[in-house]
Amino acid sequence: MHKMDLTGKVAIITGASSGIGAETAELFASFGASLTLVGRDEARLLKTVNKCVASNCLVPLWLKLDLTHPGSCETVVNKTVELYERIDILVNCAGKVMLSSPFGNSMEVFDELLNINVRVPHYLSQLSMPYLEKTKGSIINVVSSMPKRPIPGLMSYTASKAALQVFSTHVALAAAAKGVRVNCVCPGRTTNDAFRDVELDENIRSKLGQVMPNGKTMDPKEVAILICMTASYVFPNLTGAELPLDGASSWA
Questions:
Q1: Angle at the Cα of 180 from the Cα atoms of 69 and 177, rounded to 5 degrees
Q2: Residue 158, φ and ψ in degrees, nearest 5
Q3: Cβ neighbours of residue 181 under 8 Å, at least 6 residues apart?
Q4: Each residue of 182-216: pLDDT tens digit?
Q5: Where does the chain cross the membrane (predicted)?
Q6: Pairing mode of beta strands 34-39, 138-142
Q7: Which CATH number fits domain 10-245: 3.40.50.2000, 3.40.1080.10, 3.40.50.1400, 3.40.50.720?
Q8: N or C: which end of the chain has fewer CB within 10 A?
């Protein structure tokens, strides 16, 4: 029986400075993975690094980068291969939330969210694919359960996450013959997510509070466990999946 043992595996985790990304990094470390951690907040990123070292005594490669800047995605892949000589897992967890509306001047917001939430995972997947083919590795894209339940003010955000979901399905089909698995994890609200840093009016905040039918927000560690299971070799035929972890909020 396969175990969630990632010893000898090399994983790139974006958005590793907080929330789901940080918890995923720490969990991967506890299962023996060597890591490249990417984030924009150096202080938070270093906290994640220190927790990973405490878990397995391996110091991760950490990169303070804005992945939307030209050359940043290349830097992540090149430095990872330079240090570890392989890539087994890519976790695209970096993302951003901004308020928008179908009306008014919102194209800049739309473009910015598509850039970080879709283009960056797309490009990192493309750059990593030759190495993932060699290791028969996997890509996990952290999406959201929200595209199935639109909330006013979050049109561009949900559109970008829906686009990433469709992208993942297409890449999974194309990569299956190469032995690379591609899956989406679709979490509901967690206690430490991207909405923390966004100013929301009471109407939107109230609707977000109703997203989880049980009235609770999840611990990001729960999402990290699902990501780890998906990335591991426990389910070798798990690819092209959209894995909801949202307390049934997709159907509420």
A1: 125
A2: -65, -35
A3: 137, 138, 139, 172, 175, 236, 238, 239
A4: 999 998 877 665 555 555 555 555 555 555 566 66
A5: none
A6: unpaired
A7: 3.40.50.720
A8: N
Lowest mean pLDDT: which of 37-51, 148-162, 214-228? 148-162
Q: Which contacts (CB < 8 Å, 24+ apart) does range 40-47 have?
A: 40/64, 40/65, 40/66, 41/17, 42/17, 44/17, 44/18, 45/16, 45/17, 47/17, 47/22
Per the listing, tokens 């929330």 go with: 19
CA distance 186 to 205: 20
What residue type is assigned to position 32 of the chain? G
Catalytic residues: 157
Global confidence as pTM: 0.90
The answer to whether the CB of 211 falls within 8 A of the CB of 170 is no
E strand or H helix at 72: helix 72-84
User: Closest Cα to residue 185, out of 68, 73, 91, 48?
Assistant: 91
What are the structure tokens assigned to 232, written together? Answer: 């591991």
